[in-house]
Amino acid sequence: MKGFQVAVLGAAGGIGQPLSLLLKLNARVSKLHLYDVAPITPGVGVDLSHCDTSSTCVGFAGQDALIPCLTGCDLVIIPAGVPRKPGMTRDDLFNINAGIVKTLVEGIAKACPNAFVAIISNPVNSTVPIAAEILKANGVYDKRRLFGVTTLDVVRARRFVAEKANGVVRPEDVDIPVVGGHAGKTILPLLSQVAPAGCLSQLSQADVQALTARIQDAGTEVVEAKAGGGSATLSMAYAAAQFAESCLRALSGESVVECAYVDSTVVEGLNFFASKVKLGPTGAEEVFGLGPLSPFEQEGLTQLKAELKGSIDKGVAFVSAAAGAHASA
Ligand SMILES: NC(=O)c1ccc[n+]([C@@H]2O[C@H](COP(=O)([O-])OP(=O)(O)OC[C@H]3O[C@@H](n4cnc5c(N)ncnc54)[C@H](O)[C@@H]3O)[C@@H](O)[C@H]2O)c1
Ligand SMILES: O=C(O)C[C@H](O)C(=O)O
């Protein structure tokens, strides 16, 4: 099996550490590079390097180590940045996380411009457009290789659908597209398209609305349960490891379908949108349309457009303003 070099940026954090462990266990990973500003990061690398799997693992700490960490990487996964506390929206993280993502993607543009880049840092609806603008400014943007990771929304939807289906289907056998973005009402699960077909046929319209709301608010459910101690980390690491496996299979030549937040023309006026995409060796080789929507889903799509467009525009404006400030300095 071909092996790949994978980097985790933000590797010492709540998501970064368990994600790095799961990647150390992935036989498609030959070299695992861990990067974080936290001084513990080389130690996290040593710790994981003792796991008896074939890959090597090295931890890099501090800003000077970013380029050595990234050089030669095929896949870069970014969970760097601050998480929410109760009462905050994901957009409340923008002021800190936008700058973090900008700096890290500038490193990718220099050191591994052909890598697949998977962004977890919130607000994903804005950080992915930020990454795109940085890659464009450096002349290395390939829209097929940039992804916002929305896999946790799909993982939750699979799990919650299986609960509602009263044991007629296992969570891992549920197929459900979750489209739109990754924040509140912009998360739109298409329950009318669930497979196996009919597994939710006993649900009333009120049940469908409640299930949709639970999927949309699941991140907040975790934030409140952790009561100031952060947001989803373990389920996110699990979801990101699934997405990473799909990327590595695609890089190996397989064709894999995943939902992801990508550069898109699926919905007019929204340059980034999550939907099913076909991953192949060059990245997102096809971005699938939405298929038939129920009237409730159609209304949800109408409702999410303004918020998602605002978040995309905010990311683009952040990079323009930073470039303007740099030029006049
Ligand atoms: N996309 C999703 O579905 C999803 C799910 C859960 C969390 N998140 C987001 O993931 C991010 C991380 O969450 P967490 O719980 O792991 O947070 P955390 O605070 O536990 O870890 C974040 C890590 O990032 C590191 N970091 C900060 N600035 C950095 C920089 N400039 N370069 C490299 N590393 C840096 C920190 O040192 C820390 O180790 C948050 O923004 C959170 O909202 C997204
Ligand atoms: O909810 C959050 O702030 C973290 C993440 O986006 C999630 O969906 O769990």
Automatic annotation (TrEMBL):
<feature type="binding site">
    <location>
        <begin position="120"/>
        <end position="122"/>
    </location>
    <ligand>
        <name>NAD(+)</name>
    </ligand>
</feature>
<feature type="domain" description="Lactate/malate dehydrogenase N-terminal">
    <location>
        <begin position="5"/>
        <end position="148"/>
    </location>
</feature>
<dbReference type="InterPro" id="IPR001236">
    <property type="entry name" value="Lactate/malate_DH_N"/>
</dbReference>
<dbReference type="InterPro" id="IPR022383">
    <property type="entry name" value="Lactate/malate_DH_C"/>
</dbReference>
<dbReference type="Pfam" id="PF00056">
    <property type="entry name" value="Ldh_1_N"/>
</dbReference>
<keyword id="KW-0816">Tricarboxylic acid cycle</keyword>
<protein>
    <recommendedName>
        <fullName>Malate dehydrogenase</fullName>
        <ecNumber>1.1.1.37</ecNumber>
    </recommendedName>
</protein>
<keyword id="KW-0329">Glyoxylate bypass</keyword>
<feature type="binding site">
    <location>
        <position position="156"/>
    </location>
    <ligand>
        <name>substrate</name>
    </ligand>
</feature>
<feature type="binding site">
    <location>
        <position position="36"/>
    </location>
    <ligand>
        <name>NAD(+)</name>
    </ligand>
</feature>
<dbReference type="Pfam" id="PF02866">
    <property type="entry name" value="Ldh_1_C"/>
</dbReference>
<dbReference type="GO" id="GO:0006099">
    <property type="term" value="P:tricarboxylic acid cycle"/>
</dbReference>
<comment type="subunit">
    <text>Homodimer.</text>
</comment>
<feature type="binding site">
    <location>
        <position position="122"/>
    </location>
    <ligand>
        <name>substrate</name>
    </ligand>
</feature>
<dbReference type="GO" id="GO:0006097">
    <property type="term" value="P:glyoxylate cycle"/>
</dbReference>
<dbReference type="GO" id="GO:0005777">
    <property type="term" value="C:peroxisome"/>
</dbReference>
<feature type="binding site">
    <location>
        <position position="84"/>
    </location>
    <ligand>
        <name>substrate</name>
    </ligand>
</feature>
<dbReference type="InterPro" id="IPR036291">
    <property type="entry name" value="NAD(P)-bd_dom_sf"/>
</dbReference>
<dbReference type="InterPro" id="IPR010097">
    <property type="entry name" value="Malate_DH_type1"/>
</dbReference>
<feature type="binding site">
    <location>
        <position position="97"/>
    </location>
    <ligand>
        <name>NAD(+)</name>
    </ligand>
</feature>
<dbReference type="InterPro" id="IPR001557">
    <property type="entry name" value="L-lactate/malate_DH"/>
</dbReference>
<comment type="similarity">
    <text>Belongs to the LDH/MDH superfamily. MDH type 1 family.</text>
</comment>
<feature type="active site" description="Proton acceptor">
    <location>
        <position position="182"/>
    </location>
</feature>
<keyword id="KW-0560">Oxidoreductase</keyword>
<dbReference type="GO" id="GO:0006108">
    <property type="term" value="P:malate metabolic process"/>
</dbReference>
<keyword id="KW-0576">Peroxisome</keyword>
<feature type="binding site">
    <location>
        <position position="236"/>
    </location>
    <ligand>
        <name>NAD(+)</name>
    </ligand>
</feature>
<feature type="domain" description="Lactate/malate dehydrogenase C-terminal">
    <location>
        <begin position="150"/>
        <end position="319"/>
    </location>
</feature>
<dbReference type="GO" id="GO:0009507">
    <property type="term" value="C:chloroplast"/>
</dbReference>
<dbReference type="GO" id="GO:0030060">
    <property type="term" value="F:L-malate dehydrogenase (NAD+) activity"/>
</dbReference>
<feature type="binding site">
    <location>
        <begin position="10"/>
        <end position="16"/>
    </location>
    <ligand>
        <name>NAD(+)</name>
    </ligand>
</feature>
<dbReference type="InterPro" id="IPR015955">
    <property type="entry name" value="Lactate_DH/Glyco_Ohase_4_C"/>
</dbReference>
<feature type="binding site">
    <location>
        <position position="90"/>
    </location>
    <ligand>
        <name>substrate</name>
    </ligand>
</feature>
<dbReference type="InterPro" id="IPR001252">
    <property type="entry name" value="Malate_DH_AS"/>
</dbReference>
<keyword id="KW-0520">NAD</keyword>
